[in-house]
Amino acid sequence: MVMQGVVPYHWAYHKEQGLKGSMRENGFRAIGGLAQRLTSGIAANRTKGGRGASIARLRAEWSAIVGPDLARTTRPDALLAGRGARAGKALRLRVSGAAALEVQHQTGQLVEKVNAYFGHRMIDDIRLVQGTIAQAAAPRSTPAPDPRTVTEVALRAAAVKDPDLRAALTRLGARVSLNRRGVLAAALGALFVADDLRAQELPRHKLLDPLPGDHMLGKADAPNTLIAYFSFTCPHCATFYNAVLPTLRKEWIDPGRLRMIHRHYPSDVVATRAAQLTECVPPERFFTTVDTLFGGHLDWLTGSDPEADMVKVLAGQGMTPAAAQACYADDRALDKVIFDVQTGRALGVTSTPTLFINEENYLNPGGFDAIAAILRQVGR
Fold it and tell me: What is the DSSP string of 268-280?
């Protein structure tokens, strides 16, 4: 129960505390096409062996990122380590001589386009080098799915109540079925977890209670509950785990005053893969695995091949490339990730981290002091 006079919603709290800027501090794009990006990365081979080096993916998808006009005069050349104290990476961008001046004026916009496309801050700067831009090969034509396949996919997705999600899954499933038989069943089937666990049919108060399969820190009977939605490619989620959670555990969780529930809300394919890996370890090792991924965030996320590097970070816990591939093919791991996404969508989650404290949405309150202040106000 919320105490009288307390305004639980995050924006009102921040306005009072003078912290308005934190609503935008994570730079995370609102998730409109999450289902397409989440499942398309699982259902399609991006590069040989199912891995996609960041620079290779930038080159392959450059036209979609910046538009066909700029794609004709520019080409991603390399990802470089940031200089000095600057975090992240710089993109070295090859540009034809005639377009160099025009592109120079657009570098800030290009940084934002790249980061918005990938759903996290992938680059911080663009460095231009002049050179010849090779003519891109004509894209291969993709045959249209047959009417029977479209009908089958539409029937599978019919139970999804969100019209945008239903339409996206229908389009995706029809396309995927052209060359990956069986993936469609796994991707769409994950949306239909046991009948009593359909997130879209659960009332809000049930979604804000512990659900079967939830990962919980603290005592099950703790009087206060924090439910948090995280993406493994979200830098502010890493900040929460690395800088906020240790003190929160010491002062609230370990003494039995608070229980924390971790739910997945991946912002892109890389985050989805990472979430799957955490679901493939024994439940008692879940939070250790999460801690390791967030603790080594810069090591694996800023490399040339984040999916391969995250597996290396987990090598000390017995994770191998073969085990990771088996995990990605595990329907149960994918089911859990997509189910968490469904609960987040049902609760109105649009960014990460999003924290629900005693049933109220505070978005990303900030550091430990902000969260502790909320708990002192609305705590039980």
Answer: SHHHHHHHHHHHT
Q: Which two tokens stand for residue 360?
A: 């109220």
What's the CA gap between 373 and 365, in Å, rounded?
10
Sign of the four-CA dihedral 109, 115, 121, 127 = negative
Domain locations in the chain as residue ranges: 33-44+143-177+180-197, 54-130, 199-378
Omega within 30 of 0 (cis) for the link into 353: yes
Please measure the distance between the N-terminal and C-terminal CA atoms of the chain and give it in whole angstroms.
Answer: 8
Identify how many contiguous H helices and E strands the chain contains and give both numbers. Answer: 20, 8
Largest CA distance in the chain: 67
Q: How many CA atoms lie within 13 A of 336 on its CB side?
A: 23
Convert the pLDDT of each residue in 208-263 to its tens digit. 999 999 999 999 999 999 999 999 988 899 999 999 999 999 999 999 999 999 99
Which of 310, 308, 272 is CA-nearest to residue 289? 310
More confident of the two residues 283 and 21: 283
DSSP state of 261: E
Q: Mention every residue, 6+ apart, whose C-beta is less than 8 A from residue 303.
A: 54, 309
- The top-level CATH class assigned to 199-378 is alpha beta
Please give the DSSP secondary-structure letter assigned to residue 316: G
Element (H, E) at 8: none
Mean pLDDT, rounded, of the chain: 75
Name the token pair of 256: 């039995």
